[in-house]
Queue: 4 jobs
Job 1
Amino acid sequence: MIKLKNIQKRYNTKAGFTYVLQQISFEIAEGEFVTLMGPSGAGKTTLLNIIGMLDGDWEGQYTLDDNPVHELKPKQRLALNKQYIGFVFQNFNLLDSLTVYENLDTPLSYRNVKSAERKSIVCDTLDRFSIVGKKDLFPSQLSGGQQQLVGVARAVVASPQLILADEPTGNLHSSQGREVMELLKKLNEEGTTIIQVTHNHDYAAYGNRIIKLKDGWME
């Protein structure tokens, strides 16, 4: 599903080029659950943003399901992002001015899903994540664990083939963290490919493979 070849990311500074990622090459098959690990500054989030097409300023070759991302224009990458990818962020990234229901509805509106179908999908997702009672609340009215559950629900509401999770349990206490990881594991068992970034070895064990980064290089 994913093929990366010699991915490099650098910044131009007064002292010359500073590399954040260097010569990153690996493949991820459809249905895998892969964990990116490494110390702070290793380049994990940068790599996740490249895979998620949130960052277009890099070198190398990236193929997503036979789509040559490195050859696509920004508009084409955005369309591919909407078609394939769901994101789970450490800081939730929910829209504060929207209710839980509206936060889940938004990704579907981007995909031109008809109103009646959107309503059905959102209601099913609210039920699946046991947050029906929270649908009219705003993010500020939810606990951290509840916000992250909504964040995971929003990531999966449009049935993406790939979920990218950047420290999805970083702001949660242990029982909430395990709950989120169990949700991701279940989604993976249902066929969704998942790439997560974590520092937690217990949570890394939910996946079937670990890729380690250090100082921008693969170990």
Note: The chain has a mean pLDDT of 93.
Job 2
Amino acid sequence: MPDLHFMTAAELAAGYRARSISPVEVTHALLDHIGARDRFIDSFLTVTSERALDDARRAEKQFMRGEDIGPMQGIPYGLKDIIETAGIRTTGQSRSLANHVPAQDAMVAARLAAAGGVLIGKNTTWEFAHGGAAWDVVGPPAHNPWNPEHHPAGSSSGTGAAIAAGFITTGIGTDTGGSVRMPAAACGIAGLKPSYGRVSRRGIFPNSFSHDHAGPMARNSRDVALMLQVIAGYDPADPGSADIAVPDYLAALSGHLKGMQLGVPWDWLEQAGCSDGTMAAFKEALHVLESLGARSVPVTLPHLDAFSDSKKTIAMSELFSIHARTLREPPELLGASLRHRIQCGALIRAEDYLRATRLRARLCTAMQAVFKTVDLIICPCTEPAGKLEQTPPAAMFAKKSLTTPFNSTGNPAISVNMGFSTEGLPYSLQIAGRLFDEASVLRAADAYEQAAGWLAHHPALFREAVLDTA
């Protein structure tokens, strides 16, 4: 059944409950597909075949006994390799942890396991979610399934690539400046950065304590909502976790946007230098959203550079505090790109850090003030993916980011497919919402996806490979 590879989690869940397909059948199909095709995109660092089949058999027996434990039961997923898994190697893509086997699951891993999910494996990342695409780390960088000569962005690169290629149905990434949304954008899938504190980060290698988020990635935003329902919730062992009630995300997906006010930061698009193709795709997406009942208005926010300056100063300081010991001894176990970026943090003064945190407070206030006037903010997420190649470590400091502002302020934001460039690479739409209002973000994303019609598109190389083996 070739459709097994590209079925959504919601479709698989319905098939399991109707007894038309089985978790074991699906898991075998995905493992075979990975074994035959992942060599083209290197989306996995570790494939957990035995664990996956054990999980699938357990879910199948539960279904046979009439035990229904929730929407993730029997659903295949992958975890970015900075998320700790008990008894399963977790490296952060770094030679400094090449043989690290955790004793405990991260909270997100534990919640997915308890919900009956099927762990397919650990996905390729950038070194400690920060080092950029590199070849001097544990394993090669991931490639983009739409064109393997192009990158899948980062740092949740392997998770985004694996979902787009039909290797897994859902996955978990992390996002410090866009690292869930940018791979989702590059790979033409959906990826949500929840509100800061909505999802526990316990057991996830830190990048920047004050900006890190963990979030779900899937083929569409409905599956993202399904996954968020499982992983969201208070964790007293995570100092950043928020004790706030978790709503019913699937119930919020109404299919229409009547009465919603959408803010468009047109100045940001100019500051980011959005290409003509991206602008045309965005204007068409805006038309679709308005046809669903929403109304768009221009909004003014602080300059992108202010968000970038604040975030990078804070995050680089925190990155250095995390990795300073390894940087000093033995530094050769870290890749050259990550070493460069860690060293930058050593040069930041306490005065600079404090000024950056004060700037961040002002930026947060300005963002929440705008959200008193609109329900959502919409803009492109990124440009289509470029070629996969080694880039100077300092290049990250020169880019203007449309994703970073929502890490600075903690607001939820999702990226979904917004069509394709003339080269066949995905465009991306970013939708951000009020603090802890992931429900409205998901409602708009789902309604847009259903109306825009991009969900049926899959990378030709992997779609044809599935059809060839049918």
Note: The mean pLDDT is 96.
Job 3
Amino acid sequence: MTLALYLSSQGLGNNPELMRPADANSNKALIILNALDAYSNTRISALQYETQSLDALGYVCQELDLRAYFHHEKVNQPLVNSDDAKLTALLTRANLIWVIGGNTFVLAKAMTQARFKAALLQANENRIAHRLPALMYAGYSAGAVVAGIDLQGIQLMDDPSVNPAGYDPTTKALSLSLIDDRIIPHYQSDNSESENAYLAVDYLEQRKLKYKTLSDGEVWLNYSP
């Protein structure tokens, strides 16, 4: 069974009811704020806001800071590190992974340096093996974009050169490739990023690359609740 995906352009989007936990046994949410690592002064208020939003849906939340699981050796090695096992175990116990917006490239670097994709997929396999519902990956803006097949075009919306303290400057910003498409958020929206979203779409059109635009409020999902 594949991951459940809920990808929004901005915030919870227009369909937050589709994210509600089924019951009190499936209400554990992990919030990833690493897209804001270059803007550390906003992290506390962002965590409070996102926690309140998910609390209203019935979730019990905690932050998952991927920096606690960063590798300082080659990140393409097999999962053998104790931190990998800890991250996988943490994700296995969760029901929802909520990934917020910010700089997409910073977020992708954090996920790469923490080997997040491998841990995420393994955690989902663990849940299925124990006859638990699939893990839901949900996010908005950068959190949605990074789920795509790659980050082409997003350099026109976010600065790929940003490298916060503690990040390995040689780490590549790799997407999760959870879907065979590219998400362009904030398209045709009352959002400061909307103009750059048009530029990203034009970039992809010229190269005849697949993409999916999302206006603020719109949601892309791959499951039937």
Note: Helices lie at 43-55, 82-93, 104-113, 116-129, 142-145, 194-206.
Job 4
Amino acid sequence: MKYQPERVSPQDMLKRSHDFLEKMKTRRSVRQFSSDDVPMDAVINCIAAAGTAPSGAHKQPWSFCLVTDPEIRKRIRVAAEAEEYKNYNGRMSQEWMKDLEPFDTNEIKPFIEDAPGLIVVFKHSYGTGQSGKSQNYYVNESVGIAVGILLTALHEIGLVALTHTPSPMKFLAEILERPENERAYLNIPFGFPSDNCEVPNLNRKDINDIMIKYS
């Protein structure tokens, strides 16, 4: 089919890119959530936006589980904290532990229950259908792009989120009863920040530290 996206002037391109950059500079990972209700229809739109991501051979190898049930979130927290305890007490290297010090984190993860919802992202290691298994391509890359769009969309509507990876994450597939071809990729608590929310005072790398020009 014919495709002709909007084309804007160079001046408008510069303004839009500047405005987007300034907004994204305010995005932070948050571990302290308000119990305020969130309009889930808006969150569903964010998940739909994630589903517009490009993927290898257009296989769309992802599932997004929107979890608001308190009992399920409690089970996820118990299982996550059990794995995190092992991480903080032997699995993680001393260098890793030192790198985490500015974030003041430990195995206790109240945000799993405090946040009004979770989006648990699964990657499809292979496809399934009437003809049986089929191959998926560039699965990690595809799902990673989709998650980036999802986090951006949540920020766009004024919500905060956290990328939580309580590795290993097999328990997520078990609790949520996902099919055999799905592997947990990321757990994303989301909501509004609590009134006493704090984040580390971090500096992002300058553009000259992350971009190399060849011209």
Note: The mean pLDDT is 95.
